[in-house]
Every structure is written in C-alpha cells, then in structure tokens.
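A.,

Following up on our hallway conversation. Structure tokens first:
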C-alpha cells in the first residue's frame, strides 16, 4: 500500500444560519475551496484524478452530485469528475478516507477530498418527508424493520441518554460549552485559523457585501448564566440549543496525493494519513461511536491515547466529547484545543473535512506529531482518522 499525504488544506470560515453565505449556491461555495486547494500549491489541475465531496442533505441546490457541480462551478477542467458521499455528520471525513484508499491502492495519484453544506437552506431532515417534483411526499426510511427495534429516537434525546449513562451533569456540559466559545474566540484573536481560512465574499446582517475571514457563530462572553436562559429541548432534562452545535454553512477541501507523486512534483506535504477506521453503534444512543472507533483506529496505527497530540472530537452536543473523554480517560488539554462545533458550528457534510483541516494546521503550529479526528453521526456510526505531521 502506498503512503498518502495531504499536500494542501483549506476551508471557508463558518457562517451562521442565514448569515455570511445565505445567498450562495452550494456548488459555488464548494467551487471556491476546490480552486484554492490547487492554487495554494501551484498544482496543475489536469493532474487531479477525482473530486470526492461529503454532503448530507443532497436535495435541491445540493443535489445532482454536488462534487461534480462544484467542479463545474470552479476553474477546474470539465474533464474532472466528482462523486458525493453521505455518512451523515461524518460525510467529508469519509470522503478523505475513500480518497486515501483509492490512492493507497494505486487506483489514483491525486484526489481532492472536500465537504460542503448550506444549512441556511437545507437542515435536519430536509431529505425526508419532502415534496417531490410530482407533488408526492418522498417519505422516510424508518420502516417497521427500524421502528420495531429502535423506535424513533432523536439526537437530542440520545445526547441526554448519554449524559445520564456517563453521569455528566448540566453544569459540566455548560462549562464545556463556555470553554469551547472561549477557546474558539482566543484562537480567532490570536490568528490561529488565519492560514487555513480562505477569505471569500459574503453578506453581513444588513445584507452588505463583506470579506468573510473569521468564523461567524462564536459567542464570546457565553456563561452558565446566559446558557441557563435557554429553553430546554423537548424530551430532555437539560439539553438546550447552547449545549448543541449550531446550524451553519461552510465548505472545505484538501488535496491528497501518493508519496511518489509528492516526490515527483517536489511538493512539501502537510501531513500523512496514518490510519482510518469506521464503526456502527447503537442507533438509540446513536452518538457514542467515537468511543468505540477511537481504540480501533489507534490499534490500526499502532498508537495509544498518550501518543496523540490533538484530538478533534466533534461537539455535536456537549455530552458527546465529555462521555468520550470519561470513557477513554483522555487528556482534556488535548481535546478540541481551539474550540469545537458548540462555538464554531456544525455544517454537517462539511465538518469532517473542516475538523481535519484545522487539526492539521494546529498540529503543525504546535510541532506535534499526531492528530486524531472523529465524529458521531445520525443513525449510529463514527469514522476516525489519524494524521501524522509530515
């Protein structure tokens, strides 16, 4: 198997729902990061073999193979294909994993893995119970086979179940959320995200054109007291919007390349893909996958928890990374060091690639060796990938 390297990585800032990117078509936003990923390293676009994009809500403007539409919206040649994958919140990390496998096996040498989601237009369940062009209801996938076994759990209730099972209190969740905003704000002020963010045009609250260079959802000054003012979500004991990731928009991309091609082109890689894994988990608890996939990917890499310098565990809901940390006895100082989705938002199909981009740049900034990225997903799954600084 060939070694696979990340030679370029870029993302947009994250925009709030109805924020920065509310007037973008998803292919247009994706096209910007696809272009930037090759332009940053002066790569001849004709050398790219394929584009893989993660996207969850593949309807409307995100339908018709978003990856290919992103290519057509970009400066890349129209001879370049594209495929879109959906592993719910892990979609774009799975795009990276699929690209890695295709390069490692020798099928391709250069692939752009990416993610994009415009949740201002399409968010939770947009692809279910929607109206088809013929006027009929599209229905949903939860047939008797599913309902008889699992009922119809929501992610909010699953998050509460996880908090209860691992003995995580409301106060712990609130403190974690406050910390996420504080870390993300500090990282922004200190310019830690500047290198990874592609500055693109967008709109401010008043509809004026601006250059979008920082993540929009961060709320500095968040406290327990402000979180206490929020309404408790139905079916939960203390889950609120403040303990949940925000509905957001964004896109990201990275160029993956075989070691032979890296040397041939004389490029300096950012990181090597050290190992990847994926698991399915209990569909009722649903969001516990990171707990079981982490030991699996560590074993594949021949590493232990203490070897990892940075953990990016997606903050879909506050109890998820907290339960992960309790179960695996993780060093909290290495977890989501620049904040997570509670502060930065979670544009679902984009998040896996966004987390990976951020982890790679922070790994290089700290001169660490390994970063581990993982996300829980709707339906009970979790991918995980370990990157090694090159």
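Then the amino acids I'd put at each of the 390 positions:
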């Amino acid at each position: 198997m060939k070694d696979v390297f990340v030679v370029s990585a870029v993302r947009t800032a994250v925009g709030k729902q109805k924020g920065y990117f509310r007037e973008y078509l998803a292919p247009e936003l994706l096209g910007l990061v696809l272009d930037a990923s090759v332009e940053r390293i002066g790569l001849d676009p004709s050398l790219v073999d394929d584009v893989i994009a993660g996207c969850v809500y593949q309807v409307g403007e995100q339908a018709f193979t978003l990856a290919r539409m992103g290519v057509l919206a970009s400066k890349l040649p129209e001879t370049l294909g594209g495929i879109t994958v959906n592993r719910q919140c892990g979609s774009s990390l799975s795009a990276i994993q699929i690209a890695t496998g295709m390069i490692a096996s020798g099928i391709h040498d250069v692939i752009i893995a990416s993610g994009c989601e415009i949740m201002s237009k399409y968010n939770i369940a947009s692809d279910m119970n929607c109206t088809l062009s013929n006027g009929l209801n599209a229905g949903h996938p939860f047939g008797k086979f599913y309902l008889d076994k699992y009922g119809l759990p929501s992610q909010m209730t699953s998050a509460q179940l996880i908090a209860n099972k691992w003995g995580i209190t409301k106060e712990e969740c609130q403190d974690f959320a406050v910390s996420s905003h504080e870390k993300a704000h500090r990282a922004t002020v200190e310019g830690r995200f500047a290198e990874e963010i592609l500055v693109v045009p967008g709109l401010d609250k008043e509809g004026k054109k601006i250059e979008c260079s920082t993540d929009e959802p961060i709320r500095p000054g968040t406290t327990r007291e402000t979180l206490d003012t929020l309404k408790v979500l139905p079916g939960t004991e203390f889950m609120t919007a403040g303990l949940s990731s925000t509905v957001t928009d964004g896109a990201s991309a990275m160029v993956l390349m075989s070691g032979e091609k890296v040397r041939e082109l004389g490029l300096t890689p950012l990181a090597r893909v050290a190992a990847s894994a994926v698991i399915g988990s209990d569909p009722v608890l649903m969001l516990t996958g990171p707990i079981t996939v982490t030991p699996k990917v560590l074993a594949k890499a021949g590493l232990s928890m203490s070897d990892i310098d940075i953990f990016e565990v997606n903050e879909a809901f506050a109890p998820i990374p907290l339960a992960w940390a309790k179960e695996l006895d993780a060093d909290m100082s290495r977890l989501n060091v620049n904040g997570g989705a509670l502060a930065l938002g979670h544009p679902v199909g984009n998040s896996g690639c966004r987390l990976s981009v951020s982890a790679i740049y922070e790994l290089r900034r700290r001169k660490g060796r390994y970063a581990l990225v993982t996300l829980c997903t709707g339906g009970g799954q979790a991918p995980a990938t370990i990157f090694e600084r090159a």
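The mean pLDDT is 97. Curious whether your intuition agrees with the design.

B.
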